[in-house]
Model the fold of this input.
Amino acid sequence: MTRSAITAQVLAANQRFYDALEALDIAAMEACWSPAPGVACLHPGMPWQRGWDEVSSGWEVILANTGYIEFEIVDVEVTVNDPVAWVTCVERITSAAPEGAGTAAAEVAATNLFVLDATGWRIALHHASLIIRPGHGEEG
Done:
């Protein structure tokens, strides 16, 4: 398989992850993740979640407390070192609570690490960190 075909597969797996998140669908989210015991997730300002039980619980809380979420994924870079690949990107997120108490926007730098198994590329690590732009939040 060519490098560009593998890259396309990794990008498709990455898109499935964000599609599951936008759909607020925990079953689709679980299908994106590797069943390996070492999976991990770090959301901005949260502690590490390690193992599927912790990772799943974290996603369940996020999905239950989100009424709407949309991602624009930009600045995407894919690195493949078969059977591992990672995507670095910027997530431009627009979200709202279930009660519709207003919307929020954020930019988050993310790394999604994928492993290749018999079912295809599956995420093993999601690491996200808020981006603070110079001049934002400063008093003038």
Q: What stands out?
A: The CA atoms of residues 72 and 140 lie 30 Å apart.
